[in-house]
Amino acid sequence: MDNSKRTVVVTGFGPFGEHKVNASWVAVQELKKLGLGNEVDLHVHEVPVEYQKVQSLVPSLWKQYHPQLVVHVGVSGMATTVTLEKCGKNHGYEGLDISGFSPDSQCCIVGGPDCIDSGIDMELVCKRVTTSGLGVTVSVSKDAGRYLCDFTYYTSLYLSHGRSAFIHVPPLGKPYSGEDLGRALKAIIQEMLDLLDQAEEKIHCQQHFH
């Protein structure tokens, strides 16, 4: 086992529309207080709800930190559970961002695949967290909503070959507090790291046999 610290980057979004305080960034700040244990170097970043900022920021996070995992967190006014998103979509970005911009191509990466799945088994993460008695309901979704959340997720999945995750949280108090959401993020990300470790060990074992 490699004892060097693993790096995880977690992002939340800034304010937009009626979300004057974005629950995702509050949740990420609560996660930062809790930390992910001594073995994990956790970096958090607030992402502005702007397509062009995402296009420059996401690659720079990968370049700067070489993280093992990047987790993006966003708020969804429709969500009532903490929702694990399975995939990012490339097309259909018509909604204007906070600076009134949307991509001419209406897509994330021109010529990229229509949809990219996370390399992390979200159903399994959901199952594990649900049985851990967290007190926060977790569910899985296949549609991150074709706005900045989905755009960020796809961009990150494209750059990381699937080593990204996206988590939607409900607005604060509907029903969870920022602290609840921070605890949920911690539990979820620890399970994700666990699964990544297991996948890597499997690959190493297979290499020994060839």
Automatic annotation (TrEMBL):
Question: Out of the domains of life, which is the source?
Answer: Eukaryota
The cross-references to SUPFAM superfamilies, in alphabetical order and at most eight, read:
Pyrrolidone carboxyl peptidase (pyroglutamate aminopeptidase) (SSF53182)
Q: Which reaction does this enzyme catalyse, per its entry?
A: Release of an N-terminal pyroglutamyl group from a polypeptide, the second amino acid generally not being Pro
GO MF term (any one): pyroglutamyl-peptidase activity
Q: Which residues cross the membrane?
A: none
**UniProt-listed Enzyme Commission number(s):** 3.4.19.3
Gene3D superfamilies for the chain: Peptidase C15, pyroglutamyl peptidase I-like (3.40.630.20)
**Key words of the record:** Cytoplasm, Hydrolase, Protease, Thiol protease
Q: Name one GO cellular component term.
A: cytosol
**What is one GO biological process annotated to this record?**
proteolysis
Keyword hit for Endoplasmic reticulum = no
Q: What is its main location?
A: cytoplasm
Quote the subcellular location field of this record.
Cytoplasm
InterPro entries recorded: Peptidase_C15 (IPR000816), Peptidase_C15-like (IPR016125), Peptidase_C15-like_sf (IPR036440), PGPEP1_Cys_AS (IPR033694), PGPEP1_Glu_AS (IPR033693)
Any Pfam family: Peptidase_C15
Task: Give the active-site positions.
Answer: 85, 149
What is the protein's quaternary organization?
Answer: Monomer.
Q: Which family does it belong to?
A: Belongs to the peptidase C15 family.
What function does this protein fulfil?
Removes 5-oxoproline from various penultimate amino acid residues except L-proline.
- The name under which this protein is listed is Pyroglutamyl-peptidase I
